[in-house]
Amino acid sequence: MKKVGLLLLIAGIIGLAYFGYEAMQASESFSVLGVDVAVSQANWTPVIISGVVAIAGLIIYLVRKK
């Protein structure tokens, strides 16, 4: 189970980095009355799922069999 937990943890961290970067890049900025306004059009669902997978992997990795 430790190998599965470690695999999920690594996959979740990679997913967080990749989808988080994509989400940060999916924004548009424009100027209104001299003020820059940024609007995000990102889909945050993959970022949330990657975070859940990373947390689940960490829990599975840390739980010890008795």
How would you sum up this structure, described in words?
- The structure is a single chain.
- Helices cover about 65% and strands about 20% of the residues.
- With about 70 residues, it is α+β, with helices and mostly antiparallel strands.
- It has one domain (about 1-60).
- Helix 1 packs antiparallel against helix 2.
- The two termini are about 15 Å apart.
Ordered list of secondary-structure elements with their pairings:
Layout: H1 2-25, E1 27-32, E2 35-40, H2 45-62
Antiparallel strand pairs: 1-2
Helix pairs in contact: 1-2
Short account of what is shown:
The protein has 66 residues and is of the alpha+beta class. It contains 2 helices and 2 strands, in the order H-E-E-H.
Q: What is the number of helices?
A: 2
Tell me the major beta sheet: 2 strands, antiparallel
Shape: rod-shaped
Low-pLDDT windows of residues: none
Secondary-structure element order, N to C = HEEH
Q: Tell me the structural class.
A: alpha+beta
- Helix fraction by DSSP (H/I, runs of at least 4): 55-70%
Mean pLDDT over the full residue set: 89
The tally of structural domains comes to 1
As a whole number of angstroms, the C-alpha radius of gyration is 17 Å
Strand % is 15-25%
Q: Write out the strand line-up for the largest beta sheet, numbering strands in chain order.
A: 1-2
Number of strands: 2
N-C termini distance: 13 Å
